[in-house]
Amino acid sequence: MNIRLAERKDSTQLIKMRWDNTIEFDQSKKNEPNEPNEEFERECHTFFVHWNR
Prior knowledge:
The chain has helices at residues 11-25, 38-51. By secondary structure, the protein is mainly α. It has one domain (9-51). The mean pLDDT is 84.
């Protein structure tokens, strides 16, 4: 296993992983689609871009 810091190119996969975690543990989102919606993607992308400045 190779452990490294996340890079911008990882944002799509990180967003998908965050979405999977959200629908797994948030009972109110159990009926959501398996893929994140545009609003969720936009919010996560903004967070990831500005988080490590």
